[in-house]
Amino acid sequence: MKKKGFLMVISGPSGVGKGTVCQALLKGNDKIKYSISATTRPKRPQERSGDDYFFLSEEEFEKGIKEDKFLEYARVHGNLYGTPKDFVMDGINNGEVIILEIDVQGALQVKENYPNGVFIFLLPPSMSELERRLTHRGTESAEQVELRLNNARGEISKINEYQYAVINDTVENAVAHINSIIDAESLRVINNLSLDEYLKEETYD
User: Fold this and answer.
1) 99 and 35 in contact (C-beta within 8 Å)?
2) What is the mean pLDDT of residues 32-42?
3) Which of 56, 83, 119, 198 would disulfide-bridge 162, Cβ 3.0–4.6 Å?
């Protein structure tokens, strides 16, 4: 019996390691596919449309907004970014787990438009560990680190909007926990084909 996939939304504060965890998930599971965003920002020389982003004109993006083509969208530094609904739904119908790594504000917009998604909040082991990670990477001043920590507290306050919380103490542990969530969600009735189709088949996967 062929199963549907699902959308898995991963959020968490800056410095928690979302990108590292998502990349590790992609390497270890060929059923997982990264959600590709659409944007109006100019394409860089090394980038390819459909691989890095779907590059759209301002007019094309605005048309997509009017036609409800995005699960979420926002304007960032003058450019529009969004999650194309068709890309996500095509992957789900093809049995894939679509990972969307996004901030809390975007995740809540996705939840409003597509409540059937699986929403995971990635947490640091502690706020002091988050501060250590932010400081250690050396890309922000002390004032910027404090701003990110304040933002993190605000984001964590929204954790009850998510179904799962995973602590990223190590990448290996976080990936193992998320893979367990994937296994459990893949067995949910909502992620399987209809009962009629099941009863018509002679063999089952």
Assistant:
1) yes
2) 95
3) 119
Q: Which residue has the tokens 């790594």?
A: 101
Query: What would the two tokens of residue 197 be?
Result: 């189709």
| CA pseudo-torsion sign 155, 156, 162, 167 | positive
Spatial CB neighbours of 103, under 8 Å, sequence gap ≥ 6: 11, 155
Delineate the domains of the chain, giving CATH numbers in brackets: 6-35+96-200 (3.40.50.300)
How far apart are alpha carbons 160 and 92 in whole angstroms? 25
Show the CA angle centred on residue 11, arms to residues 142 and 114, nearest 5°: 150
Contact 1, 199 (CB under 8 A): no
| Section 35-57 average pLDDT | 94
Q: How far apart are CA 131 and CA 147, in angstroms?
A: 11
Residue 21's pLDDT is 97
Per residue in 96-133, pLDDT tens? Answer: 999 999 999 999 999 999 999 999 999 999 999 999 99
Question: Residues 93, 2: contact at Cβ < 8 Å?
Answer: no
- Give strand ranges (E) for the chain: 6-11, 32-34, 38-39, 54-55, 70-76, 79-84, 97-101, 118-123, 164-167
Confidence check: pLDDT of 151 > 90: yes
Beta bridge partners of 101: 10
